[in-house]
Amino acid sequence: MSEYPAGHERESCTVSATGEKNMRNFRFGFTVDSPGSQRELAQICGTAEAWGYDVVLAVDHLGPERSSPFSVLVAAAYASERLRVGTHVLNIGYWNPSILAREVATAVRLSEGRLELGIGSGIVKAQYDAARIPWQPFQERMDRLNATIDEVEKLLSTEHGLGLPPLMVGGSSDRALGIAAEHADIASFGGRYQVPGEPPGTLRFVTPAEADKGVEFLRARAGSRADEIETNSFILHVEVTDDRHAAAERIAAARDPHFLVQDAQHALETPFMLLGTEEEIARQLIEGRERYGFSYITVRRPHMELFGPIIERVRQLE
To answer: Could you tell me the residue ranges of all domains in the chain?
Structure first.
């Protein structure tokens, strides 16, 4: 576990002597994939700062059209003096611990301590296959994730004279949440499950009941440090509309194999999809913080500008 730099708020969700719950402050982040130039990235970061975002996060995908996550986040750190930078999330199968420790140490220095390190097990088998990287079974990927955290922390302490930066562990399975409970400062709920018996990458949205169960499991496993862990919700789809029910019906009917829902009601209720007016979405986020503890909200790059006004609406409603 890591200490956050001075000035970075880490309020816990606690209960006062009167029984009133004190909720953690909201933070908002967005992912960046492959900006075309430093100027474009600087413009993106400037827009994000104006809307009130707190964190810019580089993704970790392979292919010649993709960008190196650490190059992107260091460039983003130069483009902004306020935004924190991070990864959401590194695919652990791509990284040797020694190389990862070197990249982390460099990014910590060049970002002047604004780095948040996010890692996960990886869910897109096709990218591993295209890069000729062996795709390991789920439990083996989890074992590797756990071992890599330990080794990188050791390397950063002994070889680089640094501690582990604030650590995010991403995933929705009990195994991933157990690793987050043991190691992480931030537990990121990815919002999708692999559909059993279907090809890898066939993913459906988590239901509210499953999200409840995941949060309860995380807190139980974390024990005395449960209130120290910030919970992140990775929002996979944002749609501002005056008719959220019609949008949900359309999404359910599409049967996109990467964004499956059981029915329209599932699309309306999952905490990882936001449909409605700006006011409706803002209230959904506040209710989600109350129910699940999701106070750190991350959206994908295509939704960054669309979601921007909702940040202001959330803070007004608070």
So the answer is: 23-317
Q: Based on the number of CB atoms within 10 Å of its own CB, is 39 exposed (0-12), middle (13-18) or buried (19 or more)? A: exposed
Topology (CATH) of 23-317: TIM Barrel (3.20.20)
Residue with tokens 């909720």: 23
Amino acid 78: pLDDT: 97
The answer to whether 111 touches 73, Cβ cutoff 8 Å, is: yes
pLDDT at position 9 is 45
Taking CA atoms, 85 is separated from 3, 27, 30, 51, in Å, by 16, 13, 10, 16
pTM: 0.93
Q: Contact at 8 Å (CB) between 37 and 48? A: no
Q: What 3-state DSSP class applies to 93? A: helix
User: pLDDT tens across 169-181, in order?
Assistant: 999 999 999 999 9
